[in-house]
Amino acid sequence: MISRGGIYFVSLSPAQGREQAGYRPVLVVSSDAINRQPLVVAVVVGTDARHVTQDYPTNVRATAAETGLPKDTVFLCFQLRSLDPARFVNPKTRRLDLAGRMPAARMAEVENALRLTLELR
Q: Is residue 1 part of a domain?
């Protein structure tokens, strides 16, 4: 099952304009109650930390050691997307592949970044 706090590699193409594209990590931020339904899954998009030289309050930087990902990653919480669950199936293995997990402390940072992004109190 796709779960909140899980990190999966998905294809975000095609994209337009400044949207992130390609095969990249996404962090699931929707509740597990929603993730269990045949709906869409809310995610924030990750990018290679080497490409983000400045930290912003809407970004969360996580190391490979703490997430299990192959690279240090910055999750761009202003790049919030809703994806069909079919995107989470690895095209080569035809299985759902959990690539990593966001630790609780970093997940709290993601929640704060989403509050800023969406102007929630």
A: no
Could you give the number of structural domains in the chain?
1
Domain containing 22 equals 6-118
If you ran DSSP here, which 8-state letter would residue 50 be given?
G
Amino acid at 30: S
Residue 83 lies in a domain: yes
| Contact criterion met (CB below 8 Å) for 19 and 79 | yes
Consecutive 10-residue runs of the chain (121 residues): their mean pLDDT? Answer: 95 74 91 94 96 94 97 96 92 89 97 97 83
Between CA 105 and CA 108 the distance in angstroms is 5
The reply to whether the predicted model has a pTM over 0.70 is: yes
Q: Give the burial string for 16-52 (b: 16+ CB within 10 Å, else e).
A: eeeebeeebbbbbbbeeeebeeeeebbbbbbbebeeb
Sign of CA dihedral 3, 8, 14, 20: positive
Residue with tokens 């919480």: 77
